[in-house]
Amino acid sequence: MARTIRLAVIAGDGIGPEVVAEGIKVLDAVLAGSDVSVERTEFELGAKRWHDTGETLTDEDLAAISTHDAILLGAVGDPTVPSGVLERGLLLKLRFALDHYVNLRPSVLYPGVPTPLANPGDVDFVVVREGTEGPYTGNGGALRVGTPHEIATEVSVNTAFGVERVVRDAFARAQARPRKKLTLVHKHNVLVNAGHLWRRTVDAVAEEFPEITVDYAHVDAATIYMVTDPARFDVIVTDNLFGDIITDLAAAITGGIGLAASGNVNPDGAFPSMFEPVHGSAPDIAGKSLADPTATVLSVALLLEHLGLPEQAQRISNAVTSDIVSRDGSARSTVEIGDALAARVAG
Amino acid sequence: MARTIRLAVIAGDGIGPEVVAEGIKVLDAVLAGSDVSVERTEFELGAKRWHDTGETLTDEDLAAISTHDAILLGAVGDPTVPSGVLERGLLLKLRFALDHYVNLRPSVLYPGVPTPLANPGDVDFVVVREGTEGPYTGNGGALRVGTPHEIATEVSVNTAFGVERVVRDAFARAQARPRKKLTLVHKHNVLVNAGHLWRRTVDAVAEEFPEITVDYAHVDAATIYMVTDPARFDVIVTDNLFGDIITDLAAAITGGIGLAASGNVNPDGAFPSMFEPVHGSAPDIAGKSLADPTATVLSVALLLEHLGLPEQAQRISNAVTSDIVSRDGSARSTVEIGDALAARVAG
Ligand SMILES: CC(C)[C@H](C(=O)O)[C@@H](O)C(=O)O
Ligand SMILES: CC(C)[C@H](C(=O)O)[C@@H](O)C(=O)O
C-alpha cells in the first residue's frame, strides 16, 4: 500500500543546510523504488528570516509544521543573531510547542571509529533526555540589568507529570534492550527538590519493570564514568540540562559530534517528532563542505524507525557502519560522504 | 619569627577520616623543624553527629570554626543519611557561610600518570568555580509532594556582585600564569539571563586585563574539549554547577579523583578558607585503606600556598610528582601512600 511521508524540513543556519541536503539525499535513496514517498515542505527559519523580518517562529509556521508527519532539522544559531534568540525562539520553541518530551540520543562506538579514549570498551547506550522541563523552560529573569545590583535567575521546573512520562519511556526502552539496565543521572544531593522527585519517580516506575536493573549516578560522577567506563551504561534517563551536557560528552567519546544523531520525540503522536544531529550550526566551518553529514543521516534513520519503517532505518545504519569501517583517513567533502552513503543504501 | 597555624579539621564521612589523617601527617612532616607549627581543632561533624544529635552544623560550630586560619575537610555524605542533608546542611553551609566564592580546582596531568585519554597532550589548567551562587543556593522548593501534581523547582541565583568578584579573581590568576588565557564556560544560549550577566561581566573585566586572551565555550562543548583537546585550557571561570561537573571530568582525565585537590577560598580573608579533595566520601571503599590520600595532600599544599607558605607548598607538590613518577602499579594502602609522601617532603 503506497504511503506518503509529509516531511517538514528546517535546514536552519551554518552547516545546517549542507548536512540536511545530504540527509534528504540518503532518505530519497533508501526509499527509491519502494511504495513509500516523501513530500517535503521547506521552512525558511533561522538567521536570515530573523534578519529580514524579526521573526523566529510564528504561530502560522508552527501550525503549518504541525500538519506534517515528522520534521528534519539541521542546526540553529548564528553569530550575527544575539545568543539565545534563535535557540530559544526557534529550536526550543519547537521542542516545547510540539511536546518533544523524549529527547533520544543513542551513542554507539562503531568499529574503527577514532575515539579520544585509550580503552573505550564496548560502548552502546542511549540517553533519554527530558525535553520540555528543567532549566530549559525559560523561567527566570533579571533585575537592574547592567548595574552593580543586577540579579539574574534561571528556574528549573520539574513536574511529576513531566518526569513520570519520560522515566516511563526510558524504562520501556531499557526493557526492549538486551542488558535491561537504566541509570538515572541527576544531582539529588544538591538539587534536592528536583532530584528527589526524579528519584522517587524512578523508584516507583521501577516496580512495574522488575527485570530492569536500576542504577544512579550524580551528573559529575557520570562524566567520570563516561571517560573511564562508558560501557557500563545502557539506558540513561536524565534532566534536560544534564542530558545536554552528557550527550555532547557521549558524542565526543564515540567518534565526535559528526556522528551523533538525535530525535526529539513526542511518543504520544499528538505532534510530529523532530530529528536533528546533536551538533550545532558550526559557523566556523559553514559553507565549506567540511561538515560530516553522518549525524544527520543517522537522524534520518531514527526518523524512519519512528515512522514505523525499521527495515529502511536499518539499511541506513548498515550503510553508515560500512562507510565508517571503510574510512581511510582521507578527507571527504560533505557531499562526497552523502553520495557514498546514498550509494550504499541504494545498493 | 615563630608562627602558629590554627587549623580546623573536619574529617567527615566515609574515606574522609582516612585521607585527612594522611594529609595531616604530610603537613606535620613538611613543617617539622621549621618555625611554623600547627594547632589543630577536630570538629566532629557528619553522619555520626547527625545520627546522635540531629545536628549538621550549629551556629556554635560555625563560630568556633571561624576563629581558625584555615580548614581541612575530608569528605561529607553517607548512605545512612538522607541525600542532601549533609551536603547542604554541612558542606555547602560551610562554603556559603564562610563566603568561599572562589572554588579553586587545578588540573595538571603529571608525567607518568595514567589517563583514560589516548593523546591527552600537555594538560595544566585551573578551574575557578563560583562557590556561593548559581543553582547551589538552595532556592526553590516543591508543592504537592508525592502526588501526581507535584512540582519541584530549583532556582539559580546570579548577582553582578557575585559574578564580578569571581571573574576578577580568575582574571588575576590568568594574569599570573604564562599562557594568560581565560575561558568562560556557561550556556548563555539557553540560560540567557544568567548567561548574559556572566558574559557581560567577563567582557567588562577583560578591559582591565588587556594581556589576557578571552575565550568562551558552552558547557556541553567544554566537555568535548575536555576529552579531545584539554591542553587548550588555561584558566576556566564558570558557575557553581557547571564547575562541579567539569572539574570531575577534569579530574578523570588527569589521573582520577584520587589526585584532584581543591580550595574553597575566601580571597578577602574575612573568613577561613577550606581545603578538600574533589572526591566524595566513597562509602563503598571506606574503612579499607583503599583511598588514595594524594588529593588531600595536594589540598594541603593549596592550603599552605594560601597561607603564604609557597616554599612548603612546593615541597609537597614536588613530593607528589616524584611519588607518582615512581609508582609501579603495585597497590599501596592509604597509609603507605601517606607515609611515602611524608618521607619525601621531610627528606
Ligand atoms: C543549541 C542548543 C539550544 C541545544 C540544547 O542546548 O539543547 C543543543 O546544544 C542540543 O543539545 O541540541
Ligand atoms: C558533595 C557535593 C555537594 C559537592 C558539590 O556538588 O559541590 C562535590 O561534588 C564537590 O564537587 O565538591
UniProtKB/TrEMBL annotation, chains A, B:
The keyword Glycosyltransferase does not apply. Binds 1 Mg(2+) or Mn(2+) ion per subunit. NAD(+) binds at G280, S281, A282, P283, D284, I285, A286, G287, K288, S289, L290, A291, D292. Its EC number is 1.1.1.85. Its main location: cytoplasm. GO terms for molecular function: 3-isopropylmalate dehydrogenase activity. It catalyses: (2R,3S)-3-isopropylmalate + NAD(+) = 4-methyl-2-oxopentanoate + CO2 + NADH. It is an enzyme of class 1 (oxidoreductase). Mg(2+) binds at D220, D244, D248. The record marks Y136, K187 as: Important for catalysis. Substrate binds at R95, R105, R129, D220. It comes from the Bacteria. The keyword Lipoprotein does not apply. PANTHER family: D-MALATE DEHYDROGENASE [DECARBOXYLATING] (PTHR43275). Homodimer. This is 3-isopropylmalate dehydrogenase. It comes from Occultella glacieicola. The gene is leuB.
